[in-house]
Amino acid sequence: MYVGELLKNLDRVSTGVPGLDDLIGGGLIKGRVYLLIGPPGSGKTTFGIQFLIEGAKNDEKGLFVSLLEHPKTITQNMLRYNFGLLNYLKSKRIVFYDLGEGVFRAGRRFTWSEALDNLLSIVEGEGIKRVVIDSFTSLEHSVLDPDYKRIALGRFVRKLHDMGVTCLMTVEMMSSERYTDEYYLADGVIVLHHFMRDYRMIRALQVLKMHGVAHDTNLKKIRFTDEGLRVYPEAPF
């Protein structure tokens, strides 16, 4: 592979979260898969929508795959922000795919290959460039063949890379002593935290892993604003 091709494969895409790109050398690497981890209420879905909106602004069509929440509920929740989300949905620069409809309402379970190949067919058919899967943990709980996960997920990651599609998967926060396959297969891991200190809610972000990118791994303060999540350069304390 020529040097020019190698450098092209390191093209960056903005996260859409103010302050975060500065921590990871200018943005995420295009065509790679990233994990966004956090407890309930930490901002994972908001982060995902910001990521898709940033892409839509740059003519990168986005796909939001919902497992737990209905797309209508997500859209209503996002109206609190100045995202202009409805305009992006109407113009189909961002599309929702309600995977939870088939999994939970119909009581159907998929194999890993069925679930991920289905997503790939939508990505390819719709000309998608950014994908958010919310949440990957829920998808994991709905499959028939958990032992086949690493192989199917590996194929999924490679295919997205070949298509130049950047993917963000939200994952429920787990014990630091238990890491699942997606932690190892993903090119980056971003963690959202919230905890109480002196009777006050503290919110923070940490870039735990980021392949091929110089990054700051220290805890950084984050806040919910009218424009969505924002990362600040200082520590949360």
Automatic annotation (TrEMBL):
Pfam families, A to Z: ATPase
Record keywords, A-Z: ATP-binding, Nucleotide-binding
Protein name, UniProt field: Recombinase
GO MF annotations in UniProt: ATP binding
Coiled-coil ranges from the UniProt annotation: none
KaiC domain residues: 11-237
Entry-linked PROSITE patterns: KAIC
